[in-house]
Amino acid sequence: MCDSPAGRDEAAWSAPSPAPGPAVDPIHVEPVDEITVTTLVDNVYDALLTGTDRVQRAPFKAGSAIAPQFETGRTTVGLMAEHGFSALVTVRRGATTHTIVFDAGLSPDAMTTNSERLGIDLSDATAIVLSHGHFDHAGGLVGLSARRGRRALPMVVHPGAWTRRRIAIPGAEPDLLPTLSKKALEAEGFRLVERRHPSLLLDGSVLITGEVDRTTEFEHGMPAAHQAWDGSEWRHDPRVIDDQALVVHLRGHGLVVLTGCGHAGAVNIVRHAHRLTGVARLHALMGGLHLSGPSFEPIIGPTVAALTELQPQLVVPGHCTGWRAQQAIATALPDAFVAGSSGTSYRMTAA
């Protein structure tokens, strides 16, 4: 994506808006005893990565497929990787366990194919959360619906997810992005829960942030080429206002924050989670941080510096984070950084 000059209105639109002090009415998120985040779809699948006591990697042989060029007529297959993101989040409080699907990847079959090869039954999911309306996070919804049948599944989504968007690079034909259809999703059995404000799920143990306060001086959002239809004209859409994150309070450790693309800005999101919950510690940050490409690489430095001050115990930057930002995070936080890969599970337990 390329930058192009933005006008005064666009600059004001993307400027930080102060949100001083703690939340007036902090949201109590019930601490959990255990959380496991399994990456179902990511941009990378590396079958040679090794696990640890807290990281379980997918098996090298995740399945087989017909391949007549081999003597047996079959070959070993791994997992699918694509420019998209999807994760399965399982939380446990005492003897009670719940599972949520967070985003659905790019293609109709990647999330369900990987789940099947990992032996994961997506029909156990209590709900699905959509981080935002971009197509690389919603493409697998049709596959999920096909696997579940038409049993109603609650989907938490920001009402801005239905926004028509395009990429309009100067000198090139505008590229219209696929737009989610509310009517089609409802017909597939998804029970839509549209919320601009924070939502508590699973007996109060999972927080969905809703719209994120933009408070940093350096996270200005998408470049001018990213546009949205406002009902009468195409306008620069820097904020992607429907961007939201998932937050869990791990007992004795602090917050676990999961992002889809992090369009609101990784630091904005973490600060917003702290402010909403009143929990000062960040235990883990996982998901897309959108620091790839010339429009975002200039903010890698201040982003990594701010994250370093937070001293997280686990950072798994994936999807749209980009290799330069991943390298910078790995250098600054060598004990916390873990390379992401489709099929990897991260298990975190209470202190």
Automatic annotation (TrEMBL):
It comes from Nocardioides conyzicola. Gene3D superfamilies: Ribonuclease Z/Hydroxyacylglutathione hydrolase-like. Signal peptide: none annotated. Residues 95-166 form the Metallo-beta-lactamase domain. PANTHER family: METALLO-BETA-LACTAMASE SUPERFAMILY PROTEIN, METALLO-BETA-LACTAMASE SUPERFAMILY PROTEIN (AFU_ORTHOLOGUE AFUA_3G07630). This is MBL fold metallo-hydrolase. InterPro entries: DHPS-like_MBL-fold, Metallo-B-lactamas, Metallo-beta-lactamase_dom, RibonucZ/Hydroxyglut_hydro. Residues 1-26 are annotated as: Disordered. Pfam families: Lactamase_B. Residues 1-11 have a biased composition (Basic and acidic residues).
